[in-house]
Structures are given as structure tokens and as C-alpha cells.
Design a protein that fits this description.
CATH architecture: 3-Layer(aba) Sandwich
Number of helices: 10
Strand content: 5-15%
Helix content: 25-40%
Number of strands: 11
Distance between the termini: 31 Å
Order of helices and strands: EHEEEHEHEEHEEHEEHHHHH
CATH class: Alpha Beta
Number of domains: 1
């Protein structure tokens, strides 16, 4: 890093936003997080509501980078109310940021906007990359909740790319599940299942799991900042997605747990109903490949799940023993 950057992160108070803000602030950058609720943090915290212009716009004027992570959690039941909140929290906030940037004399030169690897179709047959991957939504015999998620993803990206701001490089971050040892994240939940001996295959176990180690996620953000030739949609996922059965087996091995009870589709439906979530998060096959990152020369520290799982388990245990 030649000089500190001024970086603004709307939605930066969530689990992933906190990891990213911590990383960027640790590098010496000036980080401002836009959030709906004021809270103490080692970086600047600015209140916004994600729907209206306000004083927060001043934080963007002269900033170097905007990384928008705003969006209601999808870990819920897809009721009519929650569907509207999930979609609007993404599209409306993205449209608002586009309006704000168009008013500025000196907008950020780079705007990265969260997206999701869920945008691709349920894929058992072949990998999905940015060049040849098929956007989902038209498949036969898939649940309406899966079509809803793809509608959210495509509407989100349309809102992002529709914003026409001259001289601003735009990158849509089609991220897979980000695996981190922090409390409350996906890895934390999966490891708890393994500890409770419930970490067997989910459903058929044949559906692919796409993921990215938190270290590689953060390194890929750094890489995208540095490589000005990269723009458009970028897949943030490890290059080797694997079937759920192998994924859970490798996690059990890393955790030192001999066996895990498998979960039938019916069991998952009942469990999802009790936990107020959706089985799509587990049963949809996400077979995503980071073609553009690999083609440009990015090297993953954790390309394979077995090594990533061992590292995450060690860090998870180390943090809880402190």
C-alpha cells in the first residue's frame, strides 16, 4: 500500500462487513461504515437509513472506494413481508447510492457492490463461471423460494449496473459463502452441527457447495482494488467446489468428529421451519468457479476445502481458548 485510502462501507456493521472493516482499518485505511444504528467501533460509524439522502452523502465525496454490503439477512422464512424486505433492502439502497454518487463533484473511483453466487442456476452437471455460467430462474421443478432468490440477485445487479456514474469502475461481488471463525457466521453454525453429531450429508449430499475462506475473500478485495482492469461481475469463490457429502466429511475430519447423522430432505424442511429459515441455503447446488480472478493471476491460499477447514477449526479453537 502506497498511501491510505478513504473507504466507505454501507452495511458494514454485519458479520462480513465487520470482518472487512477490521481488515481494511488494520492496513491503515480510513474506514467509514454506514449503518442504521449507531454503535462503538474502531472506525468511523455514520447513521443512514438506506432509503433517503442525508448528511451521510458527505462521506462519499472525495472517498476513494465504496463497498456496498447493505441487505437484510436471507436467513429467515420467505414470507411475503420478508421477501419484500430482502429485495428492497438491496435494490433500494443500491439505487440510493447511485443517486448520491451522481450528485458528487468527486465520487469514489471504485464502487464494489455485494451480489451473490446464488444468481446461477442449480448446477450438478457443470461449473458456473462469469463467461459461461447460466443465470437461474428458468429451471423446471425448482421451488419458488429458489426463483425468488435469483430474482433478488438479478434485480440487485440490475440496480447496480443501471447507475451511470462517469469514471467510476464498478464491480459486482458474486460471493459464495464466506467461511470465517467469527461467531455467528456460516462456519460457526456448521461446526456446531458437527459437534452435535448432526453434520452428515444434507439431502442427497450430491449438491455442490461453493465457499471461500475469509483470508481469500479479504485478499480478493485487496486484489480487486489494486487491479483497475477488472470490472463487471466477479465470482468470489474457491476454485474447487465439492458435493455436500464430501464437504461435511472434510469438516468432521478437521474437527475430529468421527460421524454425523445425515439429514433427509423432510428432516431439513422440518428443521428449517422450526429455525425460521429456508432449505435452499443447504439444498441448492452452487457450483461456482472464479474464472476471472484465476485468469487475471489471483492465487488462492486455500483452494481446497480440506485445508481450509483445518485452518478454520484451529483458528476457531484458538479464539475461544483466549
Amino acid at each position: 500500500m502506497t498511501q491510505p485510502l478513504n473507504i466507505v462501507i454501507p452495511g458494514g456493521s454485519g458479520q462480513i462487513g465487520t470482518i472487512l472493516a477490521r481488515h481494511l482499518a488494520g492496513q491503515g485505511h480510513h474506514v467509514s461504515v454506514l449503518t442504521r444504528h449507531k454503535h462503538a467501533a474502531p472506525w468511523q460509524v455514520i447513521v443512514w437509513n438506506g432509503t433517503n439522502l442525508g448528511d451521510w452523502v458527505g462521506a462519499l465525496d472525495g472517498a476513494d472506494i465504496l463497498i456496498n454490503l447493505s441487505g437484510r439477512s436471507v436467513n429467515c422464512r420467505y414470507t411475503e413481508k420478508s421477501r419484500a424486505e430482502i429485495k428492497e433492502s438491496r435494490t433500494v439502497s443500491t439505487q440510493l447510492l447511485g443517486r448520491a454518487l451522481n450528485q458528487l463533484a468527486h465520487p469514489p473511483r471504485l464502487w464494489m457492490n455485494a451480489s451473490t453466487a446464488t444468481i446461477y442456476r442449480h448446477a450438478l452437471d457443470r461449473p458456473m463461471d462469469e463467461a459461461s455460467g447460466e443465470i437461474g430462474g428458468e429451471e423446471c421443478d425448482v421451488p419458488s423460494t429458489w426463483r425468488f432468490s435469483i430474482d433478488v440477485a438479478t434485480s440487485w445487479e440490475q440496480s447496480f449496473f443501471a447507475a451511470n456514474i462517469p469514471n467510476v469502475r464498478k464491480v459486482a461481488l458474486r460471493s459464495a459463502m464466506i467461511m470465517s471463525p467469527d461467531r455467528g457466521g456460516v462456519f460457526d453454525q456448521l461446526l456446531r452441527l458437527v459437534k452435535w453429531r448432526l453434520g452428515g450429508a444434507a439431502g442427497s449430499g450430491e449438491q455442490f457447495v461453493s465457499w471461500i475462506h475469509d483470508s481469500d475473500f479479504l485478499r480478493s478485495i485487496d486484489y480487486l482494488i489494486a487491479h483497475e482492469e477488472l470490472e463487471g461481475a466477479i465470482n468470489l469463490a474457491a476454485p474447487n467446489p465439492i458435493p455436500n457429502r464430501e464437504f461435511m466429511q472434510a469438516l468432521r475430519r478437521a474437527a475430529g468428529v468421527a460421524a454425523g447423522i445425515p439429514s433427509s430432505r423432510l428432516m431439513l424442511e422440518v428443521g428449517a421451519w422450526l429455525l425460521r429459515t429456508e432449505t435452499e441455503l443447504i439444498l441448492k447446488s452452487r457450483r461456482v468457479i472464479p474464472y476471472r480472478l484465476l485468469q487475471s493471476g489471483f492465487v488462492f491460499q486455500f483452494p481446497d476445502w480440506a485445508g481450509a477447514a483445518r485452518d478454520l477449526v484451529l483458528r476457531y479453537r484458538a479464539r475461544r481458548s483466549q
